[in-house]
Amino acid sequence: MKFEILTLFPEMIMDSLRTSILGRAMEKGIISARAVNIRDYADNKHHSVDDYTYGGGAGMLMQAQPVYDCIHAVLSQSGGDARAKESDASPSVRQMLDEREKTRVIYVTPQGRVFDQAMAEEFSGVDELIFLCGHYEGIDERVLEETVTDYVSIGDYVLTGGELPALVMIDAIARLIPGVLGSEESAPGDSFQNGLLEYPQYSRPAIWHGKEVPQVLLSGDHAKVEDWRLEQSIKRTGERRPDLYAAWEKTEAAAQWRKKQEKRRKKAEQKKRKEAKKAEQKEEKQ
Questions:
Q1: Are residues 222 and 139 in the same domain?
Q2: Which of 37, 130, 189, 284 could hold 4 in an S-S bridge, CB 3.0 to 4.6 Å?
Q3: For the chain, where are the E strands, in sequence order?
Q4: Residue 179 domain-assigned (yes or no)
Q5: Considering only CA atoms, which of 153, 147, 182 is closest in space to residue 168?
Q6: pLDDT (tens digit, 9 = 90+) per residue, 23-48?
Q7: What percent of the chain is predicted at pLDDT more than 90?
Q8: Based on the domain organization, do 170 and 42 belong to the same domain?
Q9: Are residues 134 and 245 in the same domain?
Q10: How confident is the model at residue 283 (pLDDT cuts 50, 70, 90)?
Q11: Taking 50 as the threshold, does the pLDDT of residue 76 lie above it?
Q12: What are phi and psi of 113, to 5 degrees?
């Protein structure tokens, strides 16, 4: 998986990506990431990429040509200089994207679809993700129309630039790629993977500040542990994210869980009746 981040602040991106789990994944060659400075494609000596907006209004707008040239260079690069400008004979950005089903250009904007776990899974299946990070009042609409495949937001609020949202999405996507996490079981157990929040987790010591680890987790019975974890996930989701719980309740997994719970309830009632009957018989004998 290749991540290309088009930005005015490349150091901000790479300083974050080189650390911890993603940094190790890059060292192993499992993923690659590069920050490309959009200013390198400005055609003026000051490397300015912004100008006033037509129609007036506060703030500056990132211009179309530097952004277009940057995206074109990234797409057309095959190991040479990424700063090569588009030539008359070369295909357009849209033509190159049409030929590459597994390349997406993501414009980070509060006007886009809200990023979630399902989208992270979708993006983790492509070969190359190009993140376009805006600044100022945004980017000239014309270049967005010619280059962007996906408009994505991380929430209904406004930030000073697209770099932080891009980093958030890269982290969520990259950890789904095989080999990035230390344990292949880590990602499937995360919150949202099955439509529920993750269950509570505990580590040593077994008793801390008078609080004990639930006994089922110390039992060694893996089936009971898994059942407990699912029950806790369901309970936590209902308490903290009723919107997610309502959606989960409509799934086949929820229907299966309800059947299992009903079966357990009936089994417990049968056991209780048998115990009551035994107690009565014992009293009669006495």
A1: no
A2: 130
A3: 2-7, 32-37, 50-52, 60-62, 103-114, 128-133, 150-153, 207-208, 211-212
A4: no
A5: 153
A6: 999 999 999 999 999 999 999 989 99
A7: 83
A8: yes
A9: no
A10: confident
A11: yes
A12: -65, 145
Task: Report yes or no: 196 and 237 within 8 Å, Cβ to Cβ.
Answer: yes
Say if residue 153 is in the same domain as residue 213: no
Last residue of a domain, one of 150, 174, 198: 174
Is 240 within a domain?
A: yes
Q: CA-CA distance, 41 to 147, in Å (whole number)? A: 16
Contact assessment for residue 128 and residue 4, using Cβ atoms and an 8 Å cutoff = yes
Return d(Cα 278, Cα 233) in angstroms, integer: 37
In a domain, 281, yes or no: yes
Number of domains the chain contains = 2
Chain segment 141-193, per-residue pLDDT in tens: 999 999 999 999 999 999 999 999 999 999 999 999 999 997 655 665 566 76
Nearest to 132 by CA among 79, 74, 217: 74
For the chain, give the number of residues: 286
Q: How far apart are CA 252 and CA 195, in angstroms?
A: 12
The DSSP call for residue 54 is T
Where does residue 104 fall: left (phi above 0), alpha (psi -120 to 50 degrees), or beta otherwise? beta
Are the C-beta atoms of 33 and 3 separated by less than 8 Å?
yes
Task: Please report which confidence band the pLDDT of residue 87 belongs to, taking 50, 70 and 90 as the band edges.
Answer: low
C-alpha torsion 97→173→22→127, nearest 10: -30
Residues 32, 113 within the same domain: yes
Q: Name the residues annotated as catalytic.
A: 110, 137, 175, 190
- What amino acid is encoded at 284 in this protein? E
Show the domain range for 236. Answer: 207-285
Question: Which among 165, 167, 191, 182 is positioned nearest to 244, based on CA atoms?
Answer: 191
Burial, 62: exposed, middle or buried (Cβ in 10 Å; 0-12, 13-18, 19+)? buried
Which tokens is 91 given?
């295909």
Same domain, 20 and 106: yes
In a domain, 186, yes or no: no
Phi, psi of 197 (to 5 degrees): -75, 155
